[in-house]
Write a structure and sequence with these properties.
about 120 residues, alpha+beta, Bacillus phage protein, 3-stranded antiparallel beta sheet, two-stranded antiparallel ribbon, about 25% helix, globular, binds zinc ion
Length: about 120
């Protein structure tokens, strides 16, 4: 599956405001986002959104924001593990509801990848 904004595959998509916007819509259920005119990044438009899901939510880069994603999904069926790859480099693996896991070098990005996989058919 690819990002609806930049068309990058989820497993290649870097942690960014673009990814934050994807999570905001497809996981957190927000419809009120807009693209900033002066950059390719997306900002999460507070509008009628309730805190703490506004402009200060950096789901893919902040563990406190990413944990809101875990809570949104009920905290149930979530598995969080750390592994070493064949080169001895640490990576995080997160899965919700036994769906295809999200893997990344940071926990917030792994959480976001897993959440998208769990919420987007
Ligand atoms: Zn994107």
């Amino acid at each position: 599956m690819n990002c609806p904004h930049c068309n990058v595959h989820i497993d290649k998509h870097i942690a960014s405001r673009c990814f934050d916007a994807w999570v905001a819509v497809d996981v957190m259920g927000h419809t009120n986002i807009r693209k900033q005119e002066d950059s390719w990044e997306y900002c999460l438009y507070t509008g009628d959104c309730h805190e703490p899901y506004g402009v200060n939510c950096f789901f893919s880069t902040s563990i406190s924001s990413a944990w809101l994603v875990v809570e949104k999904l009920g905290g149930k069926g979530v598995g969080v593990d750390k592994y070493l790859d064949e080169n001895g480099v640490l990576y995080w693996e997160v899965g919700f509801f036994m769906k295809s896991p999200g893997r990344a070098d940071t926990a917030p990005l792994a959480i976001c990848r897993a959440a998208i996989k769990a919420c987007v058919a």
